[in-house]
TrEMBL record:
Keywords: ATP-binding, Coenzyme A biosynthesis, Cytoplasm, Kinase, Nucleotide-binding, Transferase. This is Dephospho-CoA kinase. It holds the Pfam family CoaE. Pathway: Cofactor biosynthesis; coenzyme A biosynthesis; CoA from (R)-pantothenate: step 5/5. Catalyzes the phosphorylation of the 3'-hydroxyl group of dephosphocoenzyme A to form coenzyme A.
Amino acid sequence: MMVGLTGGIASGKSTVSQMFKEKGFVIIDADIASRKVVEPDQPAYREIVQVFGESILLPNQTLDRSKLGSIIFSDEAKRQKLNSIVHPAVRKQMESWKNEALAVGKQTIIYDIPLLFESKLTNLVEKTIVVFVEEQVQLERLMERNHLSESEALARIASQMPLREKIKLADAVIDNNGELEETRSQIEELIKQWSLHP
Ligand code: ATP
């Protein structure tokens, strides 16, 4: 079974995906894929340098992600161009990891995808899980983890699809407001309910 795992910023998606991993499940992480495909030996990297120029490189020749980020933040056409290079490469990378996992007999793959519903990646998965926290808990955990002020953290939360919208789209919701052990037992329950085997 192909399962998509998502959430909001600091809602606990990595925490939950780590718990699945400890139970032997394969995790395919879209963030890791998106960093890997722009490493200097990759085709997407060469295309990005051709399109955006060498000024988006750091002295060590890797992409200056924050510079690229600020370019596309203010230029919609460039954002689309970058996505048209990066997205297919990410999809291909995830596909290749999936094939590796299937080749060694894995039965369930958990796709950890922050923007699962916002992107067109829902067609990779049969079921979706959203990690939910109340906004106040999200705010506190985000401020603490990223050393942000309340207004900075609120701005980041507000820039995303509200978690309340995401849970409407989910097949299962993991409530991560409580202790880690409570989260873990919901995962165990879901594994039984969906008959998931690593
Ligand atoms: P992002 O997508 O923004 O990287 P995330 O959804 O993966 O975030 P985590 O990094 O797993 O979220 O969790 C956010 C923060 O909250 C971390 O510092 C984590 O240690 C903490 N945290 C997660 N779950 C709990 C919990 N149940 N109790 C206490 N702290 C928690």
